[in-house]
Design brief:
heterodimer, A: Amidase signature (AS) enzymes, eleven-stranded mixed β-sheet, B: mainly alpha, two-stranded antiparallel ribbon
């Protein structure tokens, strides 16, 4: 029988408890393996790996007994199922990767294991990370552990890293890896009441992460607190010669940046993020965030990011273009699903028709179109030029400010099935997360309050490139002010 | 930009995705709507603006040109739907 009280600890508290030998890595991991089973109704995990978790926990206990403990020794984490994990099924939530057991480990997960972390399993997501609701998975939709009080309809956890967000929020992982291409870490973090950090492009290696849009894919951590995000980010970061876009910059001790002191920092409030039809409660929480930062001694200032309204169409040209190229590798020859045909081309066409879901197919077709002869300049190159202007907007703003405060999403979690009919309405979920994704800047979502119907809402801080320390410091200050202590209606209690 | 059925069929052929006749019309509508929405970018004056081709790095690093990996035939073939005698097997391509 496992100890339920272990599940309520933060990563930092669990780390310190392990160091004091209040409990062992095995005890902690047994509790989390039970929790993973307990939250099965949420469909947050595609592949739990309880045996591997116990082996890794025992190795961690063994190292600690010898006085050789590693920074994350014995910390149970979940891995979004786009990170290749050696000999463990890796699906990207797609039928087309049926049975794929990578013969290699992604750089980021390798770094986590080298820091002593324990793998609980692989989490569910939108197919190939394309979506904002975690409903397009071949393995079925993920449910948010939160429900509206008095309303039993299941809600989406956001996406695409919805399984990771749900697992962390429901106390069935101490932390998880996510990936963020247009908001896929920050928006589900906001919907599930946890912290989600998209680092600077190049901070965490993309090697071994199933590619969606290579110039936009950002691995990053999802945790219950800002401090936990800082701890995870340090373990996940670092230059990797196998990813040529990985930045050759030093990895600071991000936790040390959490001084609680943001006095004198200038915080930009972009006018253009006051979009039409934004719910009053989102606006009110944003205003509250401004007041919290002012009370902590920061200096909020109005800024302009005039290209904001063009970020979504820019993103929805560039991301599908890169996806259509990246997903060309799924051909029925080297891995995954194969549907036989009479010719090589027919085999490709049947395999890809059967293997890709509707949203992936839609994006591959759009991407193919905008890259095709005659349209490349009008769509793809045009979007690349607008992307330059969007990045310049941020560069100009960051000459005046140290961070930018915005909402992470225009709504709280919505009911499963409520938005999936209209692709453009779905794309609008990304309105606040996409601009800084295009610019490659670090951004974090921190839980800050509840909506009128009792669902979590976050606030987003955007920072300068490779200045995650300031982003984390401001986020930590917001977290202290917000005192968000709410828990979802469904959390693992630990074998009771 | 309104896409017709023939264009959707052409894109699908380029993307090597088999579509049934019945799927072409609804997809043509959906994709046309998305493309029309994207065309708001035409409002932006981008004359003289260079396309953004790299995100964070100023330049891509070069490394010494030497073999650093290899000799993994078994591992590489292990996930193949069909393999034989050290090769991937595909439908016959030469008559």
């Amino acid at each position: 029988m496992s100890d339920p009280s272990l599940l309520a600890l933060t990563l930092a508290e669990a780390r310190d408890g392990l160091a004091r030998k209040s409990f062992s890595a095995r005890e902690l991991t047994v509790a989390y393996n039970d929790a993973v089973r307990e939250i099965e109704p949420l469909n947050a995990y595609i592949t739990p790996t309880p045996e591997r978790a116990l082996e890794m926990a025992d190795a961690a206990d063994h190292r600690r007994a010898k006085g050789e403990a590693l920074p994350l020794d014995g910390i149970p984490v979940a891995v979004k199922d786009v990170y290749c994990t050696k000999d463990v099924l890796t699906t990207a939530a797609s039928h087309i990767l049926d049975g794929f057991h990578p013969p290699y480990e992604s750089t980021v997960t390798q770094k986590l294991w080298q820091s002593g972390a324990v793998m609980l399993g692989k989490t569910n997501l939108d197919e190939f990370a394309m979506g904002s609701s975690s409903t397009t998975s071949y393995y079925g939709p993920v449910e948010n552990p939160w429900r509206r009080p008095g309303d039993n309809r299941p809600l989406v956890p956001g996406g695409s890293s919805g399984g990771s967000a749900a697992a962390v929020a429901a106390h069935a992982a101490l932390a998880a890896t996510g990936t963020d291409t247009g908001g896929s870490i920050r928006q589900p973090a906001s919907y599930c009441g946890i912290v989600g950090l998209k680092p600077t492009y190049g901070r965490c290696s993309r090697w071994g992460v199933v590619a969606f849009a290579s110039s936009l894919d950002h691995p990053g951590p999802m945790t219950r607190t800002v401090r936990d995000a800082a701890i995870m980010l340090r373990a996940m970061s670092g230059n990797d010669p196998r990813d040529s876009t990985s930045a050759p910059v030093a990895v600071p001790d991000f936790e040390a940046a959490l001084t609680g002191d943001i006095r004198g920092l200038r915080i930009g409030i972009p006018q253009e993020y006051r979009v039409d039809g934004m719910p009053a409660e989102i606006e009110a929480l944003w205003q509250q965030g401004i007041e919290w930062l002012r009370a902590a001694g920061a200096d909020p200032v109005e800024i302009r990011l005039p290209m904001t309204k063009y970020a979504l169409p820019t993103y929805y040209i560039i991301a599908p273009a890169e996806a259509s190229s990246n997903l060309a590798r799924y051909d029925g020859v080297r891995f995954g699903l194969r549907v036989e045909g009479n010719s090589l081309d027919e085999m490709y066409e049947l395999t890809r028709a059967a293997g890709f879901g509707a949203e992936v197919r839609r994006r591959v077709l759009i991407g193919t179109y905008v890259l095709s002869a005659g349209y490349y300049d009008a769509y793809y190159l045009k979007a690349q030029r607008v992307r330059t202007l969007i990045a310049r907007d941020f560069a100009a703003a960051f000459e005046r400010v140290d961070g930018i405060l915005t909402p992470p999403a225009p709504s709280a979690a919505f009911a499963i099935g409520a938005q999936s009919e209209d692709p453009i309405a779905m794309y609008l979920n990304d309105v606040f997360t996409v601009p800084c994704s295009l610019a490659g800047l670090p951004a974090i979502s921190v839980p800050a309050g509840l909506s009128l119907d009792g669902l979590p809402l976050g606030l987003q801080i955007i920072g300068r490139a490779f200045d995650e320390e300031t982003v984390l410091r401001i986020a930590d200050s917001l977290e202290r002010a917000a005192q968000f202590r709410h828990v979802p209606s469904f959390v693992a209690r630990g074998g009771q | 930009m309104a896409l017709d059925k023939a264009t959707v069929a052409h894109i699908a052929a380029l993307a090597r995705i088999k579509l049934s006749e019945a799927e072409l019309d609804p997809l043509a509508d959906e994709l046309s709507q998305i493309l029309t929405w994207m065309e708001q970018l035409d409002e932006v004056d981008t004359s003289g603006v260079a396309p953004m081709t790299n995100v964070a790095a100023k330049h891509l690093p070069m490394r010494e040109d030497r073999v650093t990996d290899g000799g993994r035939r078994e591992e590489i073939l292990a996930n193949a739907p069909r393999a034989a005698r050290g090769f991937f097997v595909v439908p016959k391509v030469v008559e």
